[in-house]
What does this fold into?
Amino acid sequence: MRISLSDDSLQQAPVDILVIGVRSTNPKKDALLDKVVKAAGGTVVTRAIKDEGFEAKSGQTLKLAVGGRLKAPWLLLVGLDAKATPEDARTLGARAVRAAKQQKSVGIVLPEDAAAEVRLAVEGLIGASYRYETYKTGSRRSKGGVKSALLLTADKKRADLRDALKHGRALADAVNLARDLVNGPPNDIHPIALADAAKKACDDAAEDVEKGSLTCKIYDEKWLTKERMALFLAVNKGAATPARLAHMVYKPAGAKKRVVFVGKGLTFDAGGLCIKPAGSMVDMKCDMAGAAVTIAIVVAAARMRIPVEVHGVIGTTENMLGAAAYRPSDVYTSREGKTVEIINTDAEGRLVLADVLHWASELEPDYLVDHATLTGACMVALGNYRAALYGNDDEFADAYMEAASDSGEAYWRMPLDADLKSSLKSDVADLKHTGSRYGGSITAALFLQEFIGKTRWVHLDIAGPAYVDHAHGRYPKGGTGFGVATGVSFLHRLAKEQADT
Ligand code: BES
Ligand code: MN
Ligand code: ZN
It folds into this structure.
C-alpha cells in the first residue's frame, strides 16, 4: 500500500473515500463533523446520519455517497470513544480498510497533527489489510483492497511526521511478516525454512540500514552438538528435519545497550511420544510464534534504526515421534551443565529454550527477553488475549510492562514463586523438566530460570494471544504477531533513556 502525507484540504483530497472520526452526531458539538457537513454542502451528511441511525458510538461506522462539493465521492464517518487518544488514528486506518470495497484510495483526516497519530494510522491501515493467501489460487484470492492512502495533515514536510510514517510502516510490515510465518503450513515452514526466513528477512532489510550492521548466521545440527545443546537436540530426535539455530544481529554505530531476544521455534509440536490428542494438535503450527516475533522485532528495529544493539536468537525444530524419539525418563545434560530428567515429551519448548537461553546469556546482554508459546496452563490462567510476563528483575519487568502499555498489547506480570521449585526435583537427575500441574505456566518459567544465571531476563508466555481462532481488536484470525509491538516499544524506551542521559 502506498501511504503518503498530504496537505490537501478535505474538499480537495483526490481519494475515493474520505475518512473522519466523530464523537457526536451534532455538528455544533463536533468541529470536524461541522467542517465536513459544510464542505459537502446541503444536508446530505446530516440526513444520512439520521436516516441510518448513526449515533457516533465507538466502533460504529457510516459510509455514504457525497457526490457534492467534496472531491471524494464517498465519506466514512467513524464513531470514536468520548476520550480522545492517539489510538483513534489506528481505528480510523483499520476502519478505512474494512469499509472500502470498490474504493482503491482512502484519505484519512487525522484527529491531531502529531507523530503518534501518523504512526498509528499507518499501523491501522497496513495491519487491517493483512490477509493470508499464499496458498489460495485463482478466484479464491481476494481482489482489490486499498492501494493507496493519504494522511491529511497541515504540513506534509514535517520531519517528525515523515519519520512516524516510516516507523509505522516498519512495525506493521514486521507484524505482518510474523503473521505470515505463523500461518505458514508446517510442511513448508519447517526448521530449515524458518532459519532461512530469518536470514532472508535480514537480507531484505539490509538495504535500509547501514552497511554490515544487520547480519544473520545459521547454525546446523553439528554445531548444536559441538555446543553441547543436548536438551535442544533431544527434542529433535524424533523429527525427520534437522534442528537449526539462527542468530540475527543488528549492531548500529553508537549503541550502548545490548538486548537479546530469544524465540521458541517449534515448527510443529505433535507432543512427541506423549502425543497430543488430534484436537490440540491441529493448531500446533503456531508453536514457532516466539521465533516469528523475534525475527520481526530485529527487522523492525533495524529498519527504524533504533540506536540499540539487538540480537534475535531462534531455536527451531519439530517435536515428532518415532523410533528415535526422546522418551519420558531419559536423562540429558544441558549446555549449562545441569542434568535433566524427561517427564512429558510434550513439554519440549522449555528444553529447547533452556539450551538456547544459556547460549544467549553468554552474549552478555543487558536485557534478555524470550517469547514462547510455552504452556496451555498460561491460556487457562490469562485467556486468549493476554500474555504472561515473568521477570527476575523488577525494574526491567516494570519497564517492559510500561512498553506494553505504550504499544497497547495486554500482558500480566506473573510470579516466579520459589515455593513451586520443589516440584522440579528429580530422583535421578538434577532437575525434572515438568512440575506440578497447578501453576504450570509458573513451573515452566522456573525451569527456564535455571539456565540464565544472573542475566536480567523477561520471559513472555504468548501461548494465548499468538494464535487465535477469531479476529479480535487489532488482531486477525490465525497468527497475530502479538509481541512485536511491545518488543519494539521497549527498544524505543531504551533509546530514549540513552539519549536523555
Ligand atoms: N506448545 C505447547 C503449548 C501450547 C498449547 C501453545 C496451546 C499454544 C496453544 C507446549 O509445548 C505444550 O505442549 N505444553 C504442555 C506442557 C505440559 C505437558 C507440562 C501443555 O501446556 O499442556
Ligand atoms: Mn508441547
Ligand atoms: Zn510446544
Summary: Residues 128 and 152 are 19 Å apart (CA to CA). The chain has two domains: 2-129, 169-500. The chain has a mean pLDDT of 96.
